[in-house]
Amino acid sequence: MIRHLRNFFSPMMALGIVLLALVLLPGLFGQLFTNPEQMRLMAGGINAAPTWDHLLGTQNEGRDVLTYILKGMPNTLLIGLVGGGSAVLLGTVLGMVAGYVGGPLDGAIRNIVDIGLTIPPLAILIMIAASFSVVLPLTMGLVIALTSWMHPTRVIRSQVLSLREREFVLLLRLSGASPLHIVFRELLPNLIPFLAATFVNSVATAILASIGLEVLGLGSFQTPTLGNLIYFAIIGNAMWLGLWWWWLPPILILIVLFMGLFFVSTALDAIANPRLEPR
Amino acid sequence: MNLRYLGRRMATFLLTIFIASTLNFAITRLTPQDPIAALLGRMASRGRSVENGAEITALFRERLGLDDSLPQQYLNYLLGLLRGDLGYSLAFFPIKVEAVILRALPWTLGLLSVATLLAFTIGNLLGALAAWPQVPRGFRWLVYLSMPFSAIPYYLLALILVYLFALTWQVLPLGGAFTVGSTRGRDLATFADMARHATLPVLSVVLAVVGFWALSMRGIMATVLGEDYLIYAQARGLRSRRIFSHYAMRNAMLPQVTALAIDFGRLISGQVLVEIIFNYPGMGWVLYNALRSADFFVIQGVTLFMIFTVAVATLLLDLFYPLLDPRIRY
Which of its termini does chain B have fewer beta carbons within 10 Å around, N or C? Predict the structure, then answer.
């Protein structure tokens, strides 16, 4: 555990955390400083370049782009947290049960996971999103989790399989500890760095999927999100009209966010599997 | 390979296809949206006569068997699928969904197989060199710098590339697969035109994927470097370049080739958005237009086709894997 703590703040982790903070802080608190009036239609001129009143200009309905971004970031982050979080939660429970209990239950879970992994998630997401109107970020996150819990399940199961054979587990079993105690009190703490890496990856996957759906025009347009902003910018020909303040900021924010998640997950991965790093 | 494994693998394959088709049926039947109402709405907006609309509505109700019971509809749907019948496109009415898919398929296959192979070659070379001891430090950092690119979704890279190369510097076309109005033949000019149009889409996919290959190759190479046969090759006095290509690379490639096969299976479903950004007339573009015009049968057909290709590719990979790696036996 002490080794974990010392290795925790690697340069890569630090870089990742700084990048994430750049997105998370305005994402969480930025909306406190917004003026709801700026989200209204014709709050400013149409497609107006940045001024002191509208720091990132306005889009084709005259809404303030900066306000839209600050209102949209929490929703995008919420989709990622709900989607990634529920996928990892489901994956942890199923993976631990399958890995520790084994037998026919493991066989069943493994088969479902194998089948699920074959079906491309975007295909199912498109079918669902095109057939039902997914209105809230919360539902969007849950729908995404439905299509992305298989990968966490598989990785966690294989980790539990290798942990199960360790001496300390045998000792616990011989001393009469209940399976529930072994799985959740003894195995789970050993998996924490690993679960953290899986969680960060799942959040990235969920945000990626939601932005993909929204850029396809399958998001809910009532809710401001970064993906919807990009979709409307594409539909509104923002790039062709040279309105960089409309299409570029959401893309840059997402790039910083994905880079941050990438560095944090790579750093966590190095902690979880120290042998992977060459020297 | 024993028959029991083959049988179990085939059963999983069929089950996957069956579950995917059932989901496809269930999701579209549970939806509150009515494809025919959407069609009528679109026709009304184009100002066509209502008589014609009523006629087509009746045709579709019959074609869909919407008056049948749900189990009967389900049975008809599955029987249709067995015959490769995906129904009609609502947007281009007398054309069948299969025809729409087949028209788009070569574009997607061409674009994405070039992109995938390019990324595979460059990424593996970079990754292997990054782990190789004789390579200068500066180069190694170049490789590390390329890795974060893999964290950026390819469609965001694509938008930035369009802005830089097509709008700001205007060296490459904005989109499409060929110059509109140009005569297309089997000559060099046609090929050059198509290559110019494919450059940006390919580049955006390559940039986004190359880091993945480099990262995993670096990891595999690091384990290969510790093997005894490399020390033996050095002891024999072989040249470093030969050890790299014939001894290290060759052994490290195996898991990468497997991953490449999986990637090829996901070719059609993986990079849907790149075609939309570049207006490239492949499967992703067909899907996007179907979504925009509520062409339900095309949406269903394309997603089902994507699932089918991935399932077939995984099946083939599992069956041929023992041939690739003789150490694996089922």
Answer: C
